[in-house]
Amino acid sequence: MDQAAGGPLKRTPLHDLHRELGARLVPFAGYEMPVQYPAGILAEHAHTRSAAGLFDVSHMGQVRLTAKPGHDAAKALETLVPGDIAGLQPGQQRYTQFTNDGGGILDDLMVTSTGDHLLLVINAACKDADLAHLQGHLEARCDVEPMFARGLLALQGPQAATVLARLAPQVAAMKFMTGAFVIIEGARCYVTRSGYTGGDGYEISTPADTAERIARRLLAHPEVKPIGLGARDSLRLEAGLCLYGHDIDAGTTPIEAGLLWSIGKERRVQGGFPGADIIQQQIASGAPRKRVGLLPEGKAIAREGSEVVIAGKVVGKVTSGGFAPTLGRAIAMGYVERAHTANGTKLELMVRGKPVPAEIVPMPFVKHAYYRG
Amino acid sequence: MSTVKYSNEHEWIRVEGDIGTIGITQYAQEQLGDVVFVELPQAGRKVAKGEACAVVESVKAASDIYAPVSGEVTEANAALGDAPGDVNAEPTGRGWFFKLRLADKSELDGLMDEAAYAGFVKALA
What we know:
By secondary structure, chain A is α+β, with helices and mostly antiparallel strands. In chain A, 20% of the residues lie in helices and 33% in strands. Chain A is globular.
């Protein structure tokens, strides 16, 4: 993805470990990150779907919001996002977006309430802008504390719970989209049962100086292998999840992106977030275009930027496309004009100037396997 | 008696008589990562030296393959349709892309021999 212009690349606390594991390191959002390990993306993808994969996502931004006396951090954050944050019980997590006045998405994020604080996880490429946005709007009501040095490990896959429960038995009972403080290797971590693969798993926020030790401890289990950003992308695409800067950005609204489910029912009515008028209007009368799943025929891969065509007319554009290892075929997602978004609609994707027949299909492409208890 | 030459786009060509077999190098397949699809030129197509005439799709990206010399395609490696991973496993063997009848054998003089290519790759590291 996009590399921050200029300056030396930043490193996560696992940089030495990545080198030791033979990772191929590439620039990503201003960081030097592993795109793959020697096993390769297909093997890493398959391993995550069948056992457990360990991802270094320490480049993502972690921010803690704490209400100032007489204020409410959740109510404050709700002025910037359409999600139901005030309704989060302690230990509950929610997915939402920072919106702009046009209803576009400045970033998407996870928010967890610890009871005393709100913990936010934001995208690496957006984290400095997000921090300024939070500070600029919320500082009268909240302490906005960047925790950008902390480690963030994702342990994902059907064996993730078995493995992590060996180190911290209480994680076994956690349900999807909940969080808890957990002691791992003597360090106070914050664990959520969530991820970006569509499968079961956890994200583990660690103190900076224990991230590597915890990662090594996890990798010592035979079920666990290190997984790079390449497989992270193919896994999330199969799961139909948006990648910021590609499938969603400042010019796409949550309604166009099919993220209405992430907007609180009361908030749809009451508004009170940037761009609420446009988003409410789109909820009421439909968005001009929608994000859809696209299944091309044959083996050609329609990647980001490919035009979507019906009867010679361009009706949309692919925003993510690639090979889905679980399905052994190409998949894509993109935006299509509202009139053509019904499942089963036949259309064409332009790949290197040639039309490839395709069909609109529901997402996810690979069934989610979240642990709901 | 065959000659193998290399392009600076990391293709190899093995020439026997006036037929050249073309594929990508070990270095290229390592850089691409897992290959999932290869689009090959049809037999009979005339290609000019440097012309993009095949596409190799890895999980990460699509990359053009250029004709290292001019000629007419005589055969494409149909087996790659079902086994694109051959490009990773045996880039200079089973993973060949296509064959062509050379239009001008003197074009081979502009390509690198094995030692020169090894030095070229080393300089990229």
